[in-house]
Hints:
Blueprint: H1 2-15, H2 17-35, H3 42-66, H4 76-81, H5 84-106, H6 109-125, H7 129-132, H8 136-159, H9 164-186, H10 192-216, E1 225-232, E2 234-238, E3 241-247, E4 260-263, E5 269-276, E6 282-293, E7 297-309, E8 316-322, E9 328-336, E10 341-351, E11 360-364
Parallel strand pairs: 4-10
Antiparallel strand pairs: 1-5, 2-3, 3-11, 5-8, 6-7, 6-9, 9-10
Helix pairs in contact: 2-5, 3-5, 3-8, 5-6, 5-8, 8-9, 8-10, 9-10
Amino acid sequence: MFNDFKQSLLAKYKKHETMLEVIFFIGGFIFDVMLVSEIDDIFCLVQQGIYLLIIAVILHYEVLFRLHKWRPAPGFSIKFWNYRNLLLHFLLGTLLNIYSLFYIKSASLLSSIVFLLLMIAIIIGNELPLIKKAKVSAKVGLYGICLFSYVSLMYPLLLGFVGLIPFTLALVTTIFFFYIQGRALRKNLPDGETTFQVIVFPAASVIILFSVFYVLGWIPPVPLSLKFQGIYHMVEKREGKYFLSKQDTAWDFLSWGDRHFKARPGDKLYYYIQIYSPARFSDQVFVRWLFKDPNRGWQKTDRIPLQITGGRHEGFRALAIKSNYQPGEWRAQVETAMGHEIGRMSFDITSDDSLDVRNFEIIEK
């Protein structure tokens, strides 16, 4: 009776395999949203490492299985093997979701739109029957994206800063892990061409892709993320708190600060930001001021360094002040030392010749 039930269950799985995999994918996404907390959460990091290890083991034996170099042992092993695609799909979907969430949090949408669209396309592609039934090299490529995302997150957490050094270490580590996997498979693979197709080509594709995107500044600077920003007429710090003065305009109550800055003689621009970074993190970021010249377009003006430290859940509070400006369209953006954008804010300045008393709304941070 139990065997009949098992066979019936297996038959239903085969019949509704695609639908079940979609359900598992959605379940993985909900699982991530509910459980993924801060980017440096130890449980989350260990969980990701275990997932990557399981994926690596499944892919290793999947290659050997397809080449008729290995077969699961009778009993539990063969039962487990029949459901490997469900597990692999769940783990890849979960990791891709996690890293997409991290990238989105750290991204300035306009500067990283290509990379974010690529990640979304990869997540959607992971659901397509074409990818599910593709050669194992396609799944190795997805695994490579997850592996690189993991180590490129770990090095800034360990070193306490972002930049070229953590990125280079992440590339080297990814290559090293693929080398180890290639060596392990090479003992059983028939020729070097198979190794190239299964390991070398997808690994090289991932490395080249991320390297090009990094040079272009399209990869979000994980683990940094801009929690809050705004332009204000005045910012004061008293007893460990910041008090932000925003011109009280009823029609602009949803705006973060004075996006339509009405400047009187002597007014200064106060750009207040809250930037999140993990505990024990210490790095330097920059505030770049840009003015839109009617004839020459966006022109860079000042670049102000800000030292940040991590650990505050709401983000490290920092301030950049500018007193030399002119009416027109402006942009303030936060970027890393390498020029990778973390966030930006556009606003405009108009001259205010009125002598009327101004009312300001005070926001406490």
